[in-house]
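Q: What does the assembled structure look like for these inputs?
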Amino acid sequence: MADVMVMKEIQETAERLGIDLASVDLDAIRLPPGQDFGIVSDDEDLHQGDDVELDTGFGNIIIVDNLPVVPREKFEKLEGVIRKIYSQIGLIKDDGLWMPIDPQTQKTVGYCFIEFNTPLEAELAREKTNGYKLDRSHIFAVNMFDEFDMFMKVPDEWAPPESKPYTPGENLQQWLTDEKARDQFVIRAGSDTEVLWNDARHLKPEPVYKRAFWTESFVQWSPLGTYLATVHRQGAAVWGGASTFNRLMRYAHPQVKLIDFSPGERYLVTYSSHEPSNPRDANRVVINIFDVRTGKVMRDFKGSADEFAIGGTGGVTGVSWPVFRWAGRKEDKYFARIGKNIISVYETETFSLIDKKSLKIENVVDFSWSPTDPILSIVVPELGDHPARVSLMQIPSRDELRQKNLFSVSDCTMYWQSNGDYLAVKVDRYTKTKRSTYTGFELFRIRERDIPIEVFELENKNDKIIAFAWEPKGHRFAVIHGDNPRPDISFYSMRSANNMDKVKKLTTLKGKQANALFWSPAGRYIILAGLKGFNGQLEFYNVDELETMAIAEHFMATDIEWDPTGRYVATAVTSVHEMENGFNIWSFNGKLLYRILKDHFFQFLWRPRPPSFLSPEKEEEIAKNLKKYSKKYEAEDQDVSLLLSEQDREKRRMLKDEWEKWLNEWKRLHEEEKLERQKLRDGEASDEEEEYEAKEVEVEEILDVTEEVLSFEE
Amino acid sequence: MRPILMKGHERPLTFLKYNRDGDLLFSCGKDHNPTVWFADNGERLGTYRGHNGAVWCCDVSRDSMMLITGSADQSAKLWSVQSGEQLYSFNFGSPARAVDLAVGDKLAVITTDPFMDSPSAIHVKIIARDPADQIGESVLTIKGPQGRINRAVWGALNTTIISAGEDAVVRIWDSETGKLLKESDKESGHKKTITALTKSADGSHFLTGSLDKSAKLWDMRTLTLIKTYVTERPVNAVTMSPLLNHVVLGGGQDASNVTTTDHRAGKFEAKFYDKILQEEIGGVKGHFGPINALAFNPDGKSFSSGGEDGYVRLHHFDPDYFHIKI
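A:
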C-alpha cells in the first residue's frame, strides 16, 4: 500500500515538473554515495522491516489470490469459507487470517493473507490448495509470502542469463586416493555419528568426522560410496567432500521414513507414509524420486499403502522396501515395481512407463533384476490348473528369454549371482501328502547359449535349507542345510573339470554352529556365522583350500559386514542387546585386530567403493605376480610396526617417568611427616617402610590356680 | 594356584578386609554375621554375632584386637577380634554404610545413609582405649552430599576425610572443622555412582571404582586425577597390589540384570590392570555373580574376592605372576 502512495506522490511531482515518467529509467538513477536527498530508500525500509520481524520470519505466511470480491456484508461468510478450507491443513494463528478491504469501494480486493503456526503447514497449504476450485471463475492461486518479492521483481523483458564462470567442484572421491589404501566406515552410537578410517596397521580407527545429531533416524552410504545420506523430519540430505563432510544437497520430503539410491547413485528414492485421519483408510504413501546432483524431483508417486504393497495380496501396511527396484549397473536406466497382476517398468529418460503400459502378468508375486543386465526374473505361483512359472524377460524388448514351469510349489526364492552369470531359484515343493515340503534348486546359466537350466537337489532332499549364498563374482555357492541343531554346510561349484554343465560338490562340513553365510566380496573366503541362537560363533573358511582358517567368537554379535575390498571384517553388537555393544574388526583370516565398545551402538557401515577399473586380465596378472607387488607393502608394514613399537616404548617410558616423579615428590613429603605420624600412634615407630624387629618374648600366663587338699593315707 | 572357595555367608558378600599382618581376613555380607578367616588356608575362625541387618563394611585395628563394623540395622559396632564379644554399639537413625579407623586407631569415621527425612552424613567418633570408657557422641558430623556415601576414609595424618558415593563426586573434608576442602572435577571425574574406594598401602593415592565402567586413581593430597582404567563392566570393587604396580577391578552388571543375561555375558572377572600404563594384564574368573568386594593381602602374594554369589575366593598367586612383563 505504501508503495502505491509513494508512486502517486512521484507521479504528481513529475507532472508538476513536466517530466514524462515513462521515459525515465528509475533504476538507472544513481545518487552520490552517502547522500539520499531525504528520500527513504525502499531497500532500507525492507531492511528495517526485516530486522523487526527476523525472529518470526514470513515463512509461515501464504497469500491466497483469486478470491471472490465481496461487499462488507458477505465478508464474514467468505472468511468462514476460507477458514474452513485452511484450518483442515494446519493451525491458523490467532488473527492469522487477514483479508484487506479497499477503503474506497468497501469491498474485498480478492486476496488474503494466512499465517500458519509453522512454515511446514504453510508449505503444505500451498501445495494442496494452489489451483483449488472454489467455483468456476475462482481458482485459487496460492503463493508463499516469502516468494512474493521474488515474483514482483521479475523483469518484463527477458535478459540472457549470465553465464557463471566454472568453479571446479570438490573431488567427492578423494577418500579413494588414501595413501595407505584404507577404507572408511560410519558408526552411530548414542547421539553421535562418526566416520572413521579403518587403520588396521595401527590397530585402531582414525577419526575423520564426527557430529552429534547428524541424522534423526539412520545414515546410509550411496552404493558407490560418494555420499552419506542422513534422514531428517524435513527430508533427506547427502554429505560428502574431499577432506570432510559438507552438506551437498537437501531433498525436501516431510516425514521421510525410508530412502534408497539407484545403483549408479544418480537418483534417490524417498518414502513416507502418513497416518490417515480415518483409521479405516490405508496409510497415505508418498514416494519421491530425486536427481541426486540437482536435487530436483524427477517423479513423485502418491497413493494409499495398498497400492504399494508388493504382490497386491500382501499385508495392507507392509510395504516392502525398496518399492522400486533398479536394473543393475551404473546406467540407472530402468526401475520397476510390482502391483496387482502387473509389473510396471519405468525408464529414467522420461520417467514414464516403457511403451506407456505395464507388463500384465496374472498373479505375479515376486520379481528381481539381474545385477548387471536389464533382465527381469519373474515368479508366478501355482494357481488352479496353471503350474507355477519362473521366467526371464529382456527389457525393454519384453522378450521372454527362458521360462520354466514348476509343479506342487509352495514357495520360490530367487538368488542372483553378483555378476549376473547365474540365477538360482530355490523351490519349496509339497510332498505327495501335501503335509510337508522339500526343497530343490533350479540353476540358470545366463551366459550360456539358450540359458540351460539344471535341477539341483541336495543329497538328502528333505533337509531344510537355512541359508544360501553365491560367491561374489565367482562360480561357487554355499548352503547351510539340515534339521539338526547343528546343521551341515555344503559348497558347490557351477564348473567341473570335464563336464561344464554339471554342478559339482566340493565338500560338506558336518555339524556346524552356523546359521548365516558371509562371503568375502572378493570371493574365496567365507564366514560361517552362528548369530542369534548360536551367540556369535564365527568360522573363517577358505573355500579354495577347503580348510578352516580360524574359529572365533564375538559374543552376541548381531551384524557382520565385510569391507568392500574383502580385507577386513567387522562384527558388531548393536543395541538390540543391552550389554556388549560395540564392534570388532578382524582380518580376513580371522585374526582379531581391535575392539571398540560403545553403549547404544546402532549402526556400522563400511563406505562402499566403486567397482575397479582394472580389466580381468590385469587383475589376473596382479594375482599372478602378487609376490612382486606385495614386497613393497610388506616393507611398509614392517616400517609401521617398527615405528609403532618405538612409539609404544617411548610412551611407556614417559608414563613410567611421570609416575616416578610423582612418587618421589610424594615420598619427600611423606618423610617430612614421619614424626607426626609417630605421634599419632603414641610413638610407635613402624610405618610400612620401616623394618620389623623380631623379638622373642616369652609370656607366661597363669590360667587357673586351684587349691586342693590332698589327704595322706598311711 | 587353585583358589580356595570359602562358603560361609548365606547372602552376597559386601566387603573384605585383611588385618595388618595379613594372617586374618574379615568378610562382611548381607547376612548379619561378619566372619573372620585364616588368610592362609581359608579356615573359618568365627563370626561376630549381634547385627540385625546387612553388614556393609568393616575395619580392623592395627593391633588386630578390635573390629568395627557398619550395618544396615542402623548401628556400627565394636568387637573384640579374639573373643567375638561385642564391645560397643554406636546407634544411628539410619543405616551405617562405611567405617574406617584412623591412624592410631583413636578415631573412626562412620557414614550413614539418607533415611526418611535425614540426609546422608559422615560421623567422626572417638574410640576409647578401654571399651568401658567408650562414649557414643560424635566429635564431628558432616552433612551435605546428596545420596548415599558409599565410602569414607581418612586422609594423610588424619587431617582429612575422603568421601565418595552416589553423586559420583569425590570430596575431601577437613576432619577438624568439617569444611569441604576439595571436590573432584565434574568433567574428568566419574559419571555415575562411585561404588568403591581403596587407599594405597602407603597412603599416597587412592583408587575409586564406579558404575560408569571405569576406575580412577587420585592423588590423596591434591585430589588430582592421575590415571583412569576403562573396563567393560560397571565396577563394584577395586583394590591395589601393595607389591607390584597392579590394580584389580571387580564388578559385573547390576544384580537385577544378572538373571537376564548369560553368565558369559556377565564376565564376572577380577581384572588386573597395569597401574602405570593403564593396560589390561589379565583376569581371574570364577564367580557366577558380580564381584562386590576385593582385597589384597598386605604381603601382596594373595588376594581375595567376594561375590554376589555368596562365595569368598581366596587366590594365592603362582610364581609366574610376579614376573609378568607387558
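Helices of chain B lie at 263-266.
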